[in-house]
Amino acid sequence: MNKIFSFLLVSILLASCSQYQKALKSDDVAVKSEAANQMYETGKYIKAIRLYEQIAPAYKGKPSAERMFFLYSNSLYKSEQYYLAGYQFENFVATYPKSEKREEAAFLAAECFYRLSPIYSLDQVDTQKALDKLQRFIDIYPNSQYLEKANVYVKELREKQEKKAFEIAKQYNTISDFKGALKAFDNFIADYPGTPFKEQALYYRLDSAYKLAINSIESKKQERLAYAKSTHSSLMKFNSATEYKEKADEMLAEIEKELQQFSK
Q: Distance between CA 174 and CA 169 in Å, rounded?
């Protein structure tokens, strides 16, 4: 029984390959189209793409072109060729503004850019592009069935940007460039008021302000100590039970001790 099943499976695969090869070599657009659609329906997207690319010039301007170009775009998407898929979906949206597939194509175009967004430690140009595309989709289709997913993507991408900005600011602290760290953390907190990294940012801003003040020349020490004390207050105001409380309070004690010399 297993041998019969295996034989049938091999026969089907060979027939499929034979049909595909014949379609590739055929000059008949209808033959190519039928084979392309069959490759698409069976999940053989790379083969479908080759055939769709061959027939695309002949389909332009024809009523049947709309379906073909959507399937071609989706084949690129399904095979994870996101740059090309995004371009093709956007072209589809522009070419077929009245298509019932327009909303889906617009979302998939934006999603392609989301898929291209790199990890936070790399350049975030594609992340910003993805955010712009998704926000445009949300603005155009505020009641879309894809709205929930689009908002999830936006949240994830924004957090990635925030993580990138936070790590850059933290790096200044790590290399003991405390002036640079303070500026970076001030900008980060102002730019991302609702960030999940806010508590960490407030702590490392305190740490940077403390270290800068403690090691300052006398003429600048009092002002910097006062600022460091204010950064401690900001952290406590944000979360009085912060996980950094012990370290923060130790810094505050040292800051107040140092400030005493200026009250004499």
A: 9
Alpha carbon distance 158, 73 (integer Å): 27
pLDDT of 10-68, one tens digit each? 444 445 556 777 766 666 777 888 888 999 999 999 999 999 998 888 888 788 899 99
* pLDDT, tens digit (0-9, with 9 covering 90-100), for 161-211: 999 999 999 999 999 999 999 999 999 999 999 999 999 999 999 999 999
* Residue type at position 163: K
Question: Residues in the chain, how many?
Answer: 264
Contact between residue 59 and residue 95 where contact means Cβ atoms under 8 Å apart: no
Q: What is the pLDDT of residue 26?
A: 67
Q: CA angle, corner 168, sides to 233 and 192, nearest 5? A: 55
Long-range contacts at 249-255 (CB < 8 A, ≥ 24 apart): 251/206, 251/207, 251/210, 254/210, 254/214, 255/210, 255/213, 255/214, 255/225, 255/228, 255/229
Could you tell me if 118 and 127 are in contact, meaning their C-beta atoms sit under 8 angstroms apart? Answer: yes
Average pLDDT over all residues of the chain = 89
- AA identity, residue 126: D
Beta-carbon count within 10 A of 79 CB: 16
* This prediction's pTM: 0.78
Residue 1 tokens, joined = 């029984």
Q: Which residues of 25-38 are buried (b: 16+ CB within 10 A; e: fewer)?
A: eeeeeebbbebbbb
Cβ-defined contacts of 173-180 (< 8 Å, 24+):
173/204, 173/207, 173/208, 176/211, 178/208, 178/209, 178/211, 178/212, 179/212
**Alpha-carbon 242 to chain mean position:** 30
